[in-house]
Amino acid sequence: MEKHYSEFICPQNFRNLADWIFGWPNGVFDEKIETTTTNGYHLAPCLPSGSIIYVKTDYLDTFFHSIYPYLTNRFVLITAQGDASAPEKFLSYLHHIDSKIIHWFGQNADIESSKSDRFTPIPIGLNCFEMANGIRHIYQQNPNHTLPSIFGGQDEPQQYVHLLDVTHKILNGHPAKQLLLVNFQRLTDPTGIRSRIWKILCDQQQYTSTFVVCIDKPDGVNISGLPAIYTRNRRYPFWLSPRGNGLDCHRTWEALYLDAIPIVWNSTLNPLYVDLPIIILNDWSELTEQFLRSKLNEIATNKIKNPSFYRFDKLRFSYWRRLILNKSRHSVTATKRENYCWRAKISECCKNTKIKRTERKNKKNFNP
């Protein structure tokens, strides 16, 4: 059965906007869904203009080589659910005078925002199949900390849990002695930055004895143990969140949902962090106790005394949903979708298009 986590940013929520999907890892997350992604040659010409196509980032080479040439109408592209970066390698498809891409929304963005006005970075958010229930468990302990829905529509909850208990403790004179949590698997990034950070901050006693706490993280996600892990981690107001195997990191977004302050590195992901309580570093040497205590008081004060200072609506999927749908053929208020090809038989997907049955028949040997 498909699981739904409308209050969070999750890869499958972006996927659920799509008219057609190419490369979703069916079965990995215990979802029982029927898709038609293996019939790309048949389906591609059936998509009406303004349709949304979701491509697993690792499949982009195959998509542009084997699917893109047969698309007959312009479309909105979403790329996610993978560690590969985009769209730098494929910008020619986006900027070509005859480009079929209306707009591209992608995770792990590897270009500066000024490089294309037709590309919008989207956050990796949570792996909701693994993390959402653990965060919901923490929310159940603080049910009175809420914010109203952003748009008041059917695409979002009536209210969101918005934790501020850690922030209140800080402003009430109970600051943590150890400010910074370093808790990640050291070998999951190809650049080696995680190992270098661990060596500097955790293997040198001068840091760990003052304001830094280091807790090694094993491989994988301990789903059943996440409530206890989150409870422990929330003792520390700052969470260091260096890149993982991809540029973006789930830890950044876990922290934001749990009233912690993520610390990230200056990168092409900076547009995602605008107007959010996130610290962006240029160098690890900026991480001094004095700097963190100053930023802690500043951010906590802004959260409580100026509630509109931060754009917490950017943590809600409905914010991103509307950005995407407004570029597509779909209305943001529609409750029923037509030509929803990844959950339909080919005949149902194509029945409202002008493509002839004989044209599809001639393409029967295609196998992407």
Plain-language structure description:
The protein has helices at residues 11-15, 40-43, 60-67, 91-95, 128-140, 165-171, 193-201, 205-208, 226-233, 250-257, 270-273, 289-305, 317-325, 346-350, 357-361, and strands spanning 20-22, 51-56, 75-80, 101-106, 119-121, 146-148, 159-161, 180-182, 212-214, 238-240, 261-265, 279-281. With 368 residues, it is α/β, with parallel strands linked by helices. The protein folds into two domains: 11-126 and 316-361, no CATH class; 128-313, no CATH class. The strands form three sheets. It has a five-stranded parallel β-sheet. A five-stranded parallel β-sheet has the order 9-8-10-11-12, with helices on both faces. α3 (60-67) links the parallel β2 and β3. α5 (128-140) packs across α9. The longest helix has 17 residues, at 289-305. The chain is globular and about 65 Å long.
What tags apply to this protein structure?
single chain, 368 residues, alpha/beta, 2 domains, five-stranded parallel β-sheet, 15 helices, 12 strands, 30% helix, 13% strand, globular
